[in-house]
C-alpha cells in the first residue's frame, strides 16, 4: 500500500504530461498555414508563423477584424490562440481567432493518440473541430 502512495504522484505527473505536448509547430487542416504554439506563462498561445499556401485574393493583413484599428496588422506573427487552461489531458477555455472571418471563438486543444492536434472552436454548445499535424 505504501508503494502505491509513493507512485501516485509520479502517475499523476505522467497523466498530465500530454497537455504540454501541444507546443511546437502545427500545419492547419487545410495546409495553408504553419502555427507555432508555445508556452505563455501558465498557458499556451499560438501565432501564425508562416503562410504555406497563398490563396488568390487572400489578404496579408487582418482586413476582416471588427476593430478598424487592427485591420492593417499583418496576419503573419498574429496571435490566434490564447487564454487556455490545462485540464490535465489538454487545454480548455481558450480563444481562437479566425482572420478569414474576423471572429473569435471559444476553443479547446487536445492531442490525439496519433500525434495530431484536435483544435475545436465553439459557439454556445456547437463546436467544429480541425485536425492539425506536425510539419514533415
Explain this structure.
The protein is mainly β and 136 residues long. It has a single domain (2-132), classed as Lipocalin (Beta Barrel). Helix content is 11%, strand content 43%. The protein has one helix and nine strands; from the N terminus they run αβββββββββ. Strands 1, 2, 3, 4, 5, 6, 7, 8 and 9 form a nine-stranded antiparallel beta sheet that branches. A hairpin with a 3-residue loop joins strand 5 (85-86) and strand 6. The longest helix is centred in the first third of the chain and has 15 residues, at 2-16. Mean pLDDT is 87; it is low at 3-18.
In N-to-C order, the SSE pattern is: HEEEEEEEEE
Overall morphology:
globular
- What's the alpha carbon Rg, rounded to whole Å? 17 Å
By DSSP, the count of extended strands is 9
Mean pLDDT: 87
Number of helical regions: 1
What structural class should be given to the helix and strand makeup?
A: mainly beta
Kindly report the CATH topology: Lipocalin
Oligomeric status:
single chain
How far apart lie the N and C ends? 46 Å
Q: What is the number of independent domains?
A: 1
Indicate the CATH architecture.
Answer: Beta Barrel
Residue runs with pLDDT of under 50 for 5 or more positions: 3-18
Major sheet details: 9 strands, antiparallel
The percent of residues in helical segments reads: 10-25%
Relative strand content: 35-45%
Instruction: Give the CATH level 1 class.
Output: Mainly Beta
Amino acid at each position: 500500500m505504501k508503494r502505491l502512495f509513493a507512485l501516485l504522484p509520479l502517475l499523476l505527473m505522467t497523466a498530465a504530461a500530454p497537455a504540454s505536448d501541444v507546443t511546437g509547430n502545427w500545419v492547419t487542416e487545410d495546409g495553408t498555414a504553419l502555427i507555432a504554439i508555445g508556452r505563455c506563462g501558465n498557458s499556451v498561445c499560438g501565432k501564425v508563423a508562416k503562410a504555406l499556401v497563398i490563396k488568390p485574393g487572400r489578404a496579408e493583413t487582418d482586413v476582416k477584424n471588427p476593430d478598424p484599428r487592427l485591420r492593417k496588422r499583418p496576419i503573419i506573427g498574429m496571435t490566434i490562440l490564447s487564454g487556455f487552461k490545462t485540464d490535465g489531458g489538454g487545454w480548455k477555455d481558450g480563444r481562437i481567432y479566425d482572420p478569414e472571418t474576423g471572429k473569435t471563438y471559444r476553443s479547446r486543444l487536445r492531442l490525439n493518440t496519433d500525434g495530431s492536434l484536435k483544435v475545436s472552436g465553439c459557439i454556445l454548445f456547437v463546436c467544429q473541430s480541425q485536425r492539425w499535424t506536425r510539419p514533415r
